[in-house]
Amino acid sequence: MSTDAGVIAPATVEETTSRVPLRRHLALGIWVAAALAIVVFALTTGGFATWDNAKAIFLASSYVGLLALAQMLIMTSGNFFSLSLGTGAVLAAMIFFSELGNGIVFAIVLAVLVAGFASALQGLLVGAWRANPIIVTIGANAILTGIILLRTGGSIIRPEKGAPSINWLVDPIGGIAFPFFVLVAATIVVQLVLGRTRFGLTMFLIGENRDAAKAASLPITRTIVGVFLAAGILAALAGILLGASLSGATLSSQGTLPFDAIVATLIGGCAVAGGRGSAIGTFLGTLGVAAISSALLLRGYSEGVQILVKGAILAVVVLAVHLWNQEDAR
Amino acid sequence: MIARARRTPRGLVFLVATVLFFLIAPQIWGAGSITSSNYTDISDYLGTFGVIALAVGLGMVVGEFDISVGASYVLGGVVAVKLGQSSAVVGLLGAAAVGAFAGLVQGAIVGRFKISSVPVTLAGFIIMSGIAVTISGGQQLLYEDYATVDWLNKIHLTYLTTNGMIVGAIFILLALAFALTRIGPMMRAVGGDRRAAEVAGIRTTRTLALTMGLGGLVAAAGGGLHAFTSSAAVSDVSFEPLIDAVIAAVIGGVAITGGEGSPLGIAAGVLSLGFLQEAFVVMGSDSNLVTIVTGGFLLLVAVASAAEAGATVDWLRAQRDRFAAGGGRSRTPRTDP
User: Fold this and answer.
1) Model pLDDT, residue B145
2) Over chain A, what is the mean pLDDT?
3) Which positions 49-108 of B are in contact with A (Cβ < 8 Å)?
4) Domain limits, chain A
5) pTM above 0.80?
6) Left if phi > 0, otherwise alpha if psi is -120 to 50, otherwise beta: which for A13?
7) CB count, 10 Å around CB of B205?
8) Eight-class DSSP state of B155
9) What residue spans define the domains of chain B?
10) Nearest-neighbour CA in chain A from B80: distance (Å)
11) CATH fold for the domain made of A50-325
12) CB-based contact, B17 to chain A, within 8 Å
């Protein structure tokens, strides 16, 4: 039996990780307590545990969820989040409406391509040169916002008269709104890509340690451009579906979606430093946030309290995730 | 970081460029002429956005990105209007106290747990926005002490508004503090290399907490000032004011990676944006062009300060040298070490 480093190393790793440190118990405790409190709170709310309310929660989750998946990809690749995705979503919806006369498929494809391309360009700056993602996406957001306002003058873009019907993008199937099926499908696809493909693995490695990934000659630029492209496409889908349900698109129709999505991503257990995240976690995080908002709404709490509770939960989760992931050697 | 040779400050370059643009562009295009009201607009812009830029910029100097100052600004406005109906000073003090407390707590968490400021201050942002919306009931709160409102909007020396002068004074005070005390070097050290700063005996957690506390204080008091000036507090939950602030701080010479920046630089950044915006106002052109231009600035700065952009520059230089050496078209394999 050889005693080279390759054999010894895994054993040592196993030894150090087999002792679960106190902070992990603490993190798990916080996590379980918070989850329990929320479940009890929700279930004791009159009118919460009904099919109608569940449908409302599904619909509310759909748009946020798609944007949250986009942010999860960016965060997991170690690039915090994009502050231009909300505007990208609006841009997609506007293109979708103005091209609807040329056929619905063409309109969707063009909208998705343009929004994806805009995001991928930002990914190129971040991937090739390691430009700061927050600054790049703020700058890109300003440019996109400026272009949209120049072209539209701030007015609402609606489908032209005689354009094909887009009701099927809104109508429920078996009681559940169509956008929710899109979210479920997107979650499954993203989860498979993360777990089963070389691209997904590379993305995790870059997010975990970009310098190491670079040393290992992993395709950093290509992967990060891919991540931003995928994020732009997911945002475009959210924008088109939201636009269809509002039957119009304007910059203000994104509302608080962009940061609701970031909140959902973080609550779904994504590590802000990168390297850890999952589509299913993000999906559950989105549903969780929507469920809490719904319970608070049913109990008659004001908008302010709903926002506040969201923030408090985020604070708890961020701390728990941090305790869980923290390196021991400090 | 600190020992680096002094370059021309980025803020000054941008300020000179935008002032020249403001003075010259309307002449060239023969559209509109500059009046004193254009200068008061810029003063008002400083009075409105200067504080958020200062707060965000200070956070960036210590290497943190404090999202919550956007909410401190909004909450400060709401608190100041609620408490300040009979005395504006009480309102401002209340706002400042709330902002300082929020900043201190978040800074302490960031320093103590060594956790990224982004998620912490995002939570802080949302919690404070929630409190602001709860206090205001989602309504616009009117400030009815019109004597104060008039005083803040008063024009002095033809060009300056009171609110702009107050914010300008805050910048100058902080610049003095940076110049005369150890605050500046300490903050830059914590932002440049935190572990080295710790080893050098700087109390990093305390520095972080105090910096973010100061940022929260300035942002909330500035929010109060803005609410008084516009005689209303609005509790919108939005990243919007934050974005202008980041742009101003970054073109004002604050390093995206931390460790560089000064109050005067940030002031220069804010004034640059003010002059740029006003130039477009004078020319009567679409204000959205300004948004596009500033966004472009930001991308330029992001790329210029990107960690790995140097490699591409080196590669381009190598191509040029190879080309100059006459080997441009030859497909010889690379032999660089």
Assistant:
1) 81
2) 85
3) 65
4) 50-325
5) yes
6) alpha
7) 18
8) E
9) 10-289
10) 18
11) ABC transporter involved in vitamin B12 uptake, BtuC (1.10.3470)
12) no
